[in-house]
Amino acid sequence: MKAIACLRRAFGTLLLFLAVFVLIFVLRHMDNLELLPKVKSTFIMPRVSTHTNMNRSFCTFQSLSPEDALEESLILESTAWPETPLLPAPISLEQTSHPAHSNFTILPGRKGGQWHVGDQLEVMVQTSDFQGRPKKHGGDFLLARLHNRKLEAGVAGQVVDHLNGSYSAIFSLLWEGDAQVEVTLVHPGEAISVLNRLNGEQPDRIYFKSLFRSGSLSETTLCNVCLRPTKQPLCNYTDLRTGEPWFCYKPKKLSCDARINHYMGGSKTKILNANEEKLFQRGVNLKVSIKASGPASVTVLPQQEGQLKVKSSTVTSGPSGYYYQGVWRALGGTTVREFNASAISQCLKGKVVHMYGDSTVRQWFDFLNAALPGLKKFNLHSPMQAGPYMSLDFANNVLLKYRFHGPPIRIVVVSTSELRYIANELDGLIGGPNTVVVFGIWAHFGSFPMESYIRRLQSIRRAVVRLLDRAPGTLVVIRTGNPKGLNLFISLTNSDWSSLQCNKVLRAIFKGLNVHLIDAWEMTLAHHLPHNLHPPPPIIKNMVNNLLSYICPQKGS
């Protein structure tokens, strides 16, 4: 008996030693353990990021593979906006670009002042400050368009920043007749500096919430991609497969597993001082036209014999297309055709079309549902705007599906069971020649560091590559972002500048893959209708015609 008692004491001592050893090991390796995949949602204690490239952000991101980290660094470098010189604090509005004192000049043509279809038109823009003094540095955000209202013709111009206060706007001449130049100051460079700083220092200026519930208990806490470090523990909802980060402050009385929904909580209003707010004044320096110092239009003569036609040489330069008689004509890739209801039904016959993304993709889903009388939308009792949606044309064997992308989502209340990341959805597809995948993701990322958007697209690209490897006949079409109407609030949370930067990242990440881009940016910019987050029906019709032309290309194109 004594021997047995001794063995029990020895065994107990051994267990105690092992327990202490495990505790010490866990404490010493806590940082590494937090990066391991979680089997279920857990809570963690927040840590402050020490990443030197996060622009003083408190955002913390998981480590990337060496290849992805290098790509991220190269993309950030290639899309970096020209810096503006530091002005004395507080910022003086008088020293920033003022559209009323700036002007543009059409440079003489190479052929004795004549321009022909196929030529390029160059416009020089000189910016000046509020006192009329020429600017000496670049960094302003300008948009340029060439158009003819009677012909319903328009094309976007390429703006070149000479970094000395002057800019060139270069246009391809693509129709005969008058061509009117339009140059717009979207933001002065100093406003861009403010936006860039906010994305680093205040990525939570749009904030989100989740409701937690268990029985009769319920609590609501703040959630976001980035949460400020506090003593309150965090619930870690980082996606296991994609690594997409998402956090909520842990409820006081409920577990992290009691989370039932997601919604936008609101926005911070007082994030700028009075001088900074002056940089975003409608009618003064926020998306305001710059006038010509002389003629603002040219007359374009017919194309000369032997002159080469204008084409979009790459996915990153030159116009992707133009409008003529209200119809979009692509300059590269497939020929864009017009589709009536009968042609749409014939084109989509036997097809399954999966649409993913934000509400600008949902516009295409809604357009097709309205255009096809045989397409019947199922009532899935989904929340308005968020989906998911599904429509079926039984006679033509057409299935059309739409689902919103994963957080961040700035719309109605969404059940956590319906929060899906695009990459995970793509991994669930079989694919094939009768499968069409359409996605667009950009409008909900305007308040975060660009690293967040780059990593989202990297995970989607990996899923696209896997899909095309197992089913090479799958058609993948991507929608870019578009310019929109701006006021102070939209500028600070989803500006045209952030959308333009997202488009640059999108093109860089998907360059070289067997995917097709629909250039919603140029299709909106080149059109005569006002810019809108949700482009009006004539533009949507042209976008859908572009999509259908990829699905059913014209023979020989």
Question: Which short descriptors sum up this protein?
Answer:
single chain; 557 residues; alpha+beta; Immunoglobulin-like; Rossmann fold; 10-stranded mixed β-sheet; 13 helices
Give an account of the 3D structure.
With 557 residues, the protein is an alpha+beta fold. Among the domains are: 94-193 and 278-301, Immunoglobulins (Immunoglobulin-like, Sandwich), CATH 2.60.40.10; 339-551, Rossmann fold, CATH 3.40.50. The chain has 13 helices and 26 strands. A hairpin with a 2-residue loop joins strand 17 (321-324) and strand 18. The radius of gyration is 27 Å and the shape is globular. The model is unreliable at 1-8, 14-55 and 312-316 (pLDDT under 50).
Secondary-structure-derived class: alpha+beta
Please write the CATH class name of the domain at 339-551: Alpha Beta
Rounded to an integer in angstroms, the radius of gyration calculated over CA atoms is: 27 Å
Roughly how much helix do the residues carry, as a percent range? 25-40%
Architecture per CATH nomenclature, i.e. the level-2 architecture of the domain at 339-551: 3-Layer(aba) Sandwich
Q: Mean of residue pLDDT?
A: 88
Number of helices: 13
| Share in β-strands | 15-25%
- The CATH homologous superfamily of the domain at 339-551 corresponds to SGNH hydrolase
Question: What shape does the CA trace take?
Answer: globular
* Main beta sheet strand tally, sense and closure: 10 strands, mixed
Uncertain segments: 1-8, 14-55, 312-316
